[in-house]
Amino acid sequence: MPDPTPQTALVIGAGQAGGPLAGALAKAGWHVTLIERGHVGGTCVNEGCTPTKTMIASARAAHFARASHDLGVDATPTVDLPRIVDRTQGIVQAFREGSEAALRKAGVTLLRGDARFTGVRQVEVTVNGEAHTLSADHVVINAGARPRWPDLPGLDGVGAMASRDILLLKELPAHLLILGGGYISLEFAQLYARLGSRVTVVEAGDRLLPREDADVVTALQGVLEAEGVTFRLGAQARRVVRHGDTLSLDITGDGGDESLSGSHLLVAVGRVPNTDTLNVQATGAQLDRHGFIVVDDHLNAADGVYALGDIKGGPAFTHISYDDHRIVRDALLHGTQRSTEGRIVPYTLYTDPQLGRMGIDRTQARSLGRPTRVYTLPMTSVARAIETGQTAGVMRAVVDEATDLLLGATVLGPEGGEIMSALQLAMQGGLTATDLRDTTFAHPTLCESINNLFMTTPETLTGQD
């Protein structure tokens, strides 16, 4: 006999974990209320993956038109930024409306408002200025994160933009200054350089992307510099002021003091969790020193309370948020105790060439504690890359010496994320380096280069460095 009293759930945030989980629970017969103060779809659909990758496609088309001379074709692109933005926002709107329609079809009650915990599994929701108190058997927090705004004198008065703001800009910056040299920064730097802006990136650290192998980062930086992006590394921003249509960013670095003059300023120095107004401590949950919700390996934050996606800290990727939803879905609907422990975290940086990464890299292998082999193949040795004129980058794989099993891969090259994904499947399927060396791939594909990668002479690391 079915349970006469269906379970109830409150989900705060309609991102890439909260939305799918709300729909799954509702389809299973639960009474589900989803609270969202902004747009359905979360960061990914509205101001992250969808709009940025859509605009990157337009910038890539402009770049290939300019570079087509090398392939025997002459073309001169005309960039129409308003059309690019309108196309991008049209796709965003379609994805957003599709997600919302799916939730309503599943039977989810969608409330537009601000949520604040007033007790264990008890939430006060303010809708159009009116407060309502709701409670449920289970509460899921997927409220995400937002761009961090640094404490920089003058920043609030110069019209600086976060990543979500620049996506709506219909005026091509004459000189775009970007504060921060992380993953988001590099995508925007190449995007706007390809659209025709002058771009300067200011990074406080002495190198870009410190979590990646240094030689891989150097290769990527060289590509971006060849396309006109300028970098100021080891540079601390001291203040920023605007003079009419121009702003000045004062920085201090190894070379002394410098004032950079630009037309627009993008701030991309990290993100902070949206926990400041939630009062999550009322549930018994704890926050770490950065304000992220502390969870266990099953995403439990407190009794009957789960935290999913960016708000819990850790890797801030759409696919990780979506897998978070599967972990909690399977626990609530099927009694299956899946865990985040040992979860492979693949990711792709959508520069051109793409940087695809999963598992450990060469730097991490040095201190792994056991011997490994590191295989490296430059893209200049990949037939398909040569044929298409995209030879910048490198493929790299780390293999366990004792088992011949793959431990990680880094691919900087054309469709680097796709090649990395093929290697991830091989890793999850238990294929050895020997298997991959001898597998028959279609010719001439980029994935065929996996054969060649494992035919190179590897570097042997003791894992004790």
From TrEMBL:
InterPro entries: FAD/NAD-bd_sf, FAD/NAD-binding_dom, FAD/NAD-linked_Rdtase_dimer_sf, Pyr_nuc-diS_OxRdtase, Pyr_nucl-diS_OxRdtase_dimer. Its cofactor is FAD. The keyword Flavoprotein applies. Residues 345-452 form the Pyridine nucleotide-disulphide oxidoreductase dimerisation domain. Residues 10-321 form the FAD/NAD(P)-binding domain. Keywords: FAD, Flavoprotein. Pfam families: Pyr_redox_2, Pyr_redox_dim. Belongs to the class-I pyridine nucleotide-disulfide oxidoreductase family. This is Mercuric reductase. The lineage of its organism: Bacteria, Thermotogati, Deinococcota, Deinococci, Deinococcales.
